[in-house]
Amino acid sequence: MLKIKRLCFLFICTVCFMGTAQAIPGTHTHFAAFFNNGTQTNFSFPDTVMGDDIETPMFKRGAEMMLFAHSVTIQDGDVVSLQNDTLREVDDGFKDFGLNCQITIHTKNSWQVSGMCETFITGKGKNNQLIMPTAIPKQLIWYKVFEDKEQGMAGYFMKEKGQDFEK
Fold it and tell me: Is there a contact between 134 and 143 (Cβ–Cβ < 8 Å)?
């Protein structure tokens, strides 16, 4: 019985002295990449998409989502690395279909993203898409940060305020 009391006491002490997570205001970032699925004639990627739902309007245009990423507690200078790579055996070799990105986020003075994405689709080789410094001035607007017309791919970035957790 004494052992059970000691264990309960240790458990209570541990819970009381553990750090607790608290919600604080912060900025969330989102990145989405799409490819032209070939179902629409005169297809084009828009420069911006309003609101937090990008998948529905892009699907209506004839684009399929390739990658979606969400990050919280963004700070100036953070680099987000994203990858969606399918490796497939074709004719006794391997071919890729995918996307690899490294995006730097700057938050001081004004919001801006930059970086590079490597795009590759089976049979079309690999292309490097430079993400020139792109301002992200408003929340809940998806901004096109790169487009690879040869591969039929584009990437979009959006920010929004939300609750982050900090110890």
Answer: yes
Query: Phi and psi for 158 in degrees, rounded to 5?
Result: -145, 150
Please answer whether residues 103 and 79 qualify as being in contact, where contact means their C-beta atoms are separated by less than 8 angstroms.
yes
Q: How many other C-beta atoms can be found within 10 angstroms of the C-beta atom of residue 156?
A: 24
Q: pLDDT per residue over 129-165, tens digit each?
A: 999 999 999 999 999 999 999 889 999 999 998 765 5
Sign of the CA dihedral running 95, 33, 100, 166: negative
> Strand, helix or coil at 13?
helix
| E strand or H helix that includes residue 84 | strand 78-90
Both tokens of residue 51? 């609101």
pLDDT digits (tens, 9 = 90+) for 85-115: 888 787 888 777 889 999 999 999 899 999 9
pTM of the predicted structure, to 2 decimals:
0.79
Using DSSP, state whether 94 is helix, strand or coil: strand
Under 8 Å between Cβ of 126 and 118: yes
